[in-house]
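Reopening: RNA 2',3'-cyclic phosphodiesterase still failing for me.
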Amino acid sequence: MNQPSHYFLAVPLPEEIKSFLFQCSQQLKKQASYKVWMGKHDFHITLVFLGGVAKEKLVALIDRLNNMTFQLEAMNLKLKGLGGFGKKDQPRVLFADVEQSDALAMNQKRVAQCCRECGFQVERRPYRPHITLGKKWAGEGPLFLERLAERIPPLEKSWSVKHIVLYEIHPGADPKYMPVQKFYCEP
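Support: Ran it again with your exact input. Result attached.
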């Protein structure tokens, strides 16, 4: 029996930011041991992870999101350094942190509510916007984020966002995340 494809909704990044983050991650690879490093075209800011989704449920969600896009606000976002999830000295995920934004927080809440109304289980932990660079810690010694941050250019770039994207996950492919549908924000 075929497993349903996995999907998530996210804020895409402009090419300039992807290129910058990829250059940084190439420098970080020399200093930090992660089993998985994100490819340049896979950088994004997840809003809601959906998991495996049957086609009928996906069509209903797309329809509902198309009808709610007037509620999504355009956003101005900014990187604000390195961060990690997990142990402080051996974070399982290394990420570029994203400065808190009222518009991003509101859009994430609206998208999550729309997903719940369509029957999806949505993460209950507080939303923490980030851009994953590496995951699955493979090192033996401690990792010090402060020292790593000193070895790359400052993560302080800004950009504007005018849409969000529904992505389908293709494990083993490059890029791994393929856009399915864009949903435009109101200016």
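The chain has one domain: 6-184. If you still see a failure, please send the error message rather than a screenshot.
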